Structures are given as C-alpha cells and as structure tokens.
Amino acid sequence: MSRSRPSARVERRHLAGLALAVVALAAAPFVLTSYPLSLLTLSLAYGLFAFGLDLAWGRAGVISIGHAAFFGVGAYGVAIATERGIPLALAIPVTLLLAGALALAIGLAGLRRGTSPSTMAVLTLALTLVAEQAARSLLSLTNGTNGLFVESGGIVGTYYRTAVVVLVAVTVVWVVLLRGRFGRRLLAVRVNEPRSEHLGVDPRRVKIQAFVLSATVAALAGVVVAPIIGLVSPGVAGVVMSTQVLVFLAVGGRGNILGAFLGAALVTIGQEYLGAAIGSWYLFVIGVVFVLVVRFAPGGLVGLVTSRLRRPVGEEAAQGAVIEAPAHPAEQPAVPAGAADGRPAIDVRGLVKRFGAMSVIRGVDLTIERGEVVCLIGPNGAGKTTLLNLIAGDLAPTGGEIHLNGQDVTSWTPHHRARLGLGRLFQTPSVYPELTPAQNLALAQAEAHHPVTLPAELARFTDVDDMLTSDLSLADQRALELALVMAWGPEIVLLDEPAAGLSHEDSVRLAETLRAINRDLGCTLVVVEHDMDIVRQLGDRVVVLADGRVLMSGDMDEVASHDEVRAAYIGAV
Ligand SMILES: Nc1ncnc2c1ncn2[C@@H]1O[C@H](COP(=O)(O)OP(=O)(O)OP(=O)(O)O)[C@@H](O)[C@H]1O
After folding, report:
1. Distance in Å, CA 378 to ligand 1 centroid
2. Measuring CA to CA, how many Å separate 265 from each of 10, 111, 260?
3. What's the CA-to-centroid distance between 53 and ligand 1, angstroms?
4. What is the dihedral of CA 492, 496, 436, 457, to 10 degrees?
5. Helices 6-31 and 160-179: crossing angle, nearest 10°?
6. pTM of the model
C-alpha cells in the first residue's frame, strides 16, 4: 500500500521544477531581446510581490487587500536612499524590518482571538489608503505626486540578474521553511484550525508569522521593482496596486510558487501588449478575467491544470510541506509523567455558562482523578457538550474555575491547555480531510506531547497514504481521529459521543480500544455517551448531568437505580 510518501514526491517535484526554472531564467538573456527581457524582469518583480501575498492569503488564509503598502515601503526605501545617498546595504535591511514591524502590528491587532477574518481585510485596506496618502503628503521625503526617480540604467543586464538572484534566494529560503516545523504548522492550521489548536499549535502565532513573512517578501519585491520602473510614485503603495496583486494571484493560483509568477507574468505582459492596443479598456478586460477566474477557476490557472492531471493524493493540500513523523518515537511510559503527585486530572469548581439569558451550566463541581474513565450522561440539552467545550477551552465560562493537573487554566486558550496533555475528540470527527490518514498521524506525531506506541487497532492508519481521509467511512474517520489524538500522546482525553453513528460491532470495538488506552497508556478518559451498553462497558464512574447541574455520580448500577436519574432520563437507562 505504501510507496514513497506524497510529501517526499512533492519535494522531489519541487526541486526538479526549481532546477528547471533556474536553467530557463539563466538562458533568457541569451535568447530574448532587450524589450521582452525588461518585461520579464518586471514580471519577476511583480511575481515576487504576488508570492509575498500568497504567503498570507494562499498559505495561511489571511486576506490582505492592502499589500501594496508593504510593496511601497520597499520601493520608497530604495528611492529615498538613492536620492539621499544612503548606502543600499543599510537602507534595504531597514526597509524590510520596517515592513515586517508594520505587518507585526497589523497582525497583532487583526488576528486577535475571536476577531473575524474581515478585520484583517479592513485593517490592510486602511493601511494602503494611509500609505498612498502619506506618499502624496510627505513632500520632503517622497516628493509627493511627482514621485522619486531611481537610477535605472542597465536594466537589461543588472536588474534582470538582481531579480533572478533575489527570486532564487527567496525560493530557497521558502523551501527550507516549508520543510520545517513552520511549514508543517502552516499546513495544519490552514487545513483544520480547531484540530491543530487541540494538538497544541497556536494558530494565531502561525498566522502572524506568515503575515510578517509575507509583508517582508512584498517589501523585497518593492526593493527590486524600484529601479525597474524608474519612478516611484504614490500609486506604488496604493489601493490600485493592492488590487492588482490580488488579480495576479487569483489568475495564477494560490498556494504554489508557480501560480504567483504565472499570474504576474500574464497580467503584466498582457497589459503591455493589450494595453497598447485597447488603452484603458484593458482594465475592463482584467476585471472580467478576474470575475471569470474567481467564478469558474477558484484555484487559478495552475489549479485548473493540476485538477485535470491526476496527482497523487495529499499533494495538493501539502503544497510542498514535509509531513513526516519523527524518526525515533520513544515508548510511552505506562503511567504519564507526574501521575503520582495526587493532583486530580480535572477539577471543576462552581462552573457556570450562560448564553445570553439562557443558563446552560449552572454551578458544576466535578473532580476526575488521574487514570479514571468517567462517562458523562444526561438527557439531550443537559449541557454535556458545553461542559466539554468549557474544559477544553473552546468556550469561556461565565463563572467558576477549571483546573487541569492542578493548574488553574480557566483563562487559558485551547492550545495552552493542550500543551498540558489535554486531547479532544469532537462529535463530528475533526481530522485533516485533504490529507492522507498517514499524513494525519504524522502531523500529530510531529507535534507529540508524549511519543506513543499506538494500539494495533489505531496503528493500522500509519501506512495508509494512497487515499484521502475525506474518503474514509465515518467509522474509520472516528478511529483516525482517536488515532491521531492518541499518537500525539495526551494524558487526558475528552470524547464527545464517540460511538454516534457506529454499528453495534464498531461501538463494542471502540469501547475495547478505549479500555486498552486507559489500561496500557494510563490515560484519563471523559466520555460523553448516550449508548448505555458502551457506558456500562466503559465507565469506572458515571456522572449524570441534568439541566446544567451534576445530578449524581456513581457506578452504573447505582445510577440506573436512582429515582431522580430515572425521572430526568426516563427510559434511557
Ligand atoms: N454556542 C451556543 N449558543 C447558544 N446556545 C447554545 C450554544 N451551545 C449550546 N447551546 C445550548 O445549550 C444547551 C446545551 O447544549 P449541549 O450541546 O451542551 O447539550 P448536550 O447535553 O450535549 O446535548 P446532546 O446530548 O443533545 O448533545 C442547548 O439548549 C443548546 O441549544
């Protein structure tokens, strides 16, 4: 079943593509006359700009509709330095740092937890408007609307070579980053942010890093473009340029280097030739092309071509990231570290959750010892999922405290809680659907809290890399979700109706696997479950939740014979 891993194939293909592109670029000055070569030079600079935007939009899903502000910082940096005789060796790093710092400030403000994705769109739009206006108004620095001239002699030789060298250097740095932890996390967050967060990855941090990198590359493109265009004027940082780069990327295709450069080259060269023929109607043509691409080819031209070619599974989503499990998984200790110190795994005190006027959790006190298997039962709407969400950090409580392993985590984010060893399974399996099962496991293992040897029932996914996870049956997706959470090595696992939708045989097998996980790996399990056969098979202790309160706690027989439970839960027990 297992051939070479998709990520390894992607890597080989990328290296071959890179080598081919370098040869083609090296040959260009010998086969092209000066005008096409200068157009190619401009296309490379714009392609670099589009690639910069792709790092935010295509790779991290962070939309920026004002990226020309960063491009403008680069272009004006070179223009002002040239005007004032400041050495470029000093001006360029300062310019890139400035763009990075600006992006960091925008990212910190716009990617705060709980803010909507449109916040970044609004902030970046404001930034490009301010940048363009600043370039118009700061006459002593920018020469206003007249702009600044940059020495552009020798464009055909010098600037083409400069553009190619910068381009190759950026690509090499990018490939190195993509092969490492950053590339893997970027992929994980893009494909399934909540799952990644529950594997301890901080999505906000990853997105801010991508945005800063993206702005720095855009500024570098501005540095490269300044001598090519010769005149740096306010439009270079403005809203039209910001829109143009969005068009480059939409036309070429997001999520791969080729798309950015192809889009930039097609639009730039088209503008040059078509613009000469039809004048400003060219903008109308661009607008129509943009709408058509967004409507009929959301993956751009590269996406259109690759969707027609049958590509090995997992490659599209992996986008060159190397997803491999660590080579030397250590054995999981039978009892997790720190288990003997006597602190409960979970300690919830006076927990309250209200949604508006509706009280869903009304003062829950619950202590779960390490190594326990606790089944949480109760009628529909009792607040079981809400309680798991509160413990996992997916919801903030209205009142009360939550302690994990003795630590007060009430105000902690899900990824901070995950790092204490808290694993989470959802009612609908939360996996990486665009990746293969083997890649899913490898992603989890690479983030491992404790490296684990998986039970055979779960280890069967390790070699499944010839199909996408989205093609697995529901039972297998549930098993894979459990496998990936367990491969990550949690100490405490919250499971929300893990047997829902499974056949009786699959449910019994699941209960046996959970028992084995508890026995062999020492994991504490908290299981919300409606299937009373599974509850009987699983639970050391059953906790009954009704109307947002703990009604009682005990073994299954005690709970089943309790009158209040029967009243709250008629017929189910
Ligand atoms: N984000 C939310 N906003 C508003 N109300 C919510 C929200 N989440 C849950 N609720 C409400 O809280 C109540 C408890 O929901 P919850 O999903 O926790 O119950 P449950 O015990 O898990 O039920 P079930 O067994 O049906 O899954 C329900 O009335 C639900 O509509």
Report:
1. 12
2. 24, 32, 9
3. 40
4. 70
5. 180
6. 0.87
CA dihedral 379, 383, 384, 388 (to 10 degrees): 170
Asked if 77 contacts 94 with a C-beta cutoff of 8 angstroms, the reply is: yes
CA of 544 to the centre of ligand 1 (A): 16
* Count of Cβ atoms closer than 10 Å to residue 4 Cβ: 11
What are the structural domains of the chain?
17-234 (no CATH), 346-570 (3.40.50.300)
Contact by Cβ (8 Å): 306, 315: no
* Closest ligand 1 atom to Cα of 356: 4
Backbone angles phi, psi at 463, to 5 degrees: -105, 5
Tokens of 232: 């740096």
Integer Cα distance of 230 and 120 in angstroms: 32
What letter would DSSP give residue 331? Answer: P
Predicted confidence (pLDDT) per residue in 500-535, tens digit = 888 888 888 889 999 989 998 889 999 999 888 888
One-letter amino acid at 258 equals L
Question: Does the interface ipTM go beyond 0.85?
Answer: yes
CA distance 489 to 329: 11
> Quick one: which atom of ligand 1 is closest to the CA of 383?
18
What is the rounded (10 degree) CA torsion for 116, 121, 127, 133?
-140
Q: Tens of pLDDT along 395-426?
A: 999 999 999 999 999 999 999 999 999 999 99
**Residues 503, 227: Cα–Cα separation, whole Å:** 68
H or E element at residue 46 = helix 34-60
Ligand 1 centroid–CA 199 distance in Å is 24
Ligand 1 atom closest to the Cα of residue 387 is 18
Q: Is 151 exposed, middle or buried (0-12, 13-18, 19+ CB in 10 A)?
A: exposed
Protein residues whose CB sits closer than 6 Å to any atom of ligand 1 = 355, 360, 378, 380-386
Contact between 556 and 542 under an 8 Å Cβ cutoff? The reply is yes
Do residues 489 and 446 touch, judged by C-beta distance below 8 A?
no
